[in-house]
Specification:
The protein is an alpha+beta fold. It has one domain: OB fold (Dihydrolipoamide Acetyltransferase, E2P), CATH 2.40.50. The chain is 20% helix and 27% strand. Strands 1-2-3-5-4 form a 5-stranded mixed β-barrel. The longest helix is centred in the last third of the chain and has 12 residues.
Length: 124
């Protein structure tokens, strides 16, 4: 995982985070694609990320994206992230196999290599 520039330069605002991984899901209320952060990063998990829907809606639900975000803290509401550059939102290369399985309609829970190992064990 790449460290954020915020840690290297303390004079920067602690509201900018680089190379954050997010998963695309459909909002159950509006049925529009939304991004939420993945757990295990230097940012809280399951935080919503505001971005333009047209840049993330072209791939199926479950696709993992990598983007830079800015923390938005409103006094009246819950904090959330906002994409820094909407046009530069790209699918994450680190999750290439996962994203390809999602696109082809396979279950993301079991990888191809895991299936091959199971077959080898069964065959002896």
């Amino acid at each position: 995982m790449q460290l954020s520039l915020v840690e290297l330069f303390p004079e920067l605002n602690k509201g900018l985070f680089l190379d954050i991984f997010a998963k695309m899901t459909l909002d159950p209320r509006t049925r529009k694609p939304t991004l939420t952060t993945l757990n295990g990063q230097r940012v809280p998990g399951d935080f919503k990320i505001r971005c333009q829907h047209k840049y993330i809606g072209q791939f199926p639900e479950g696709t993992i994206y990598k983007l830079d975000v800015r923390l938005v803290n409103y006094k009246k509401g819950k904090p959330y992230f906002s994409a820094v550059q909407n046009r530069r939102i790209q699918r994450a290369l680190e999750f290439f196999d996962h994203n390809m399985r999602i696109q082809r309609g396979f279950s993301p829970a079991v990888s191809v290599s895991t299936r091959m190992l199971q077959r080898r064990v069964e065959l002896g």
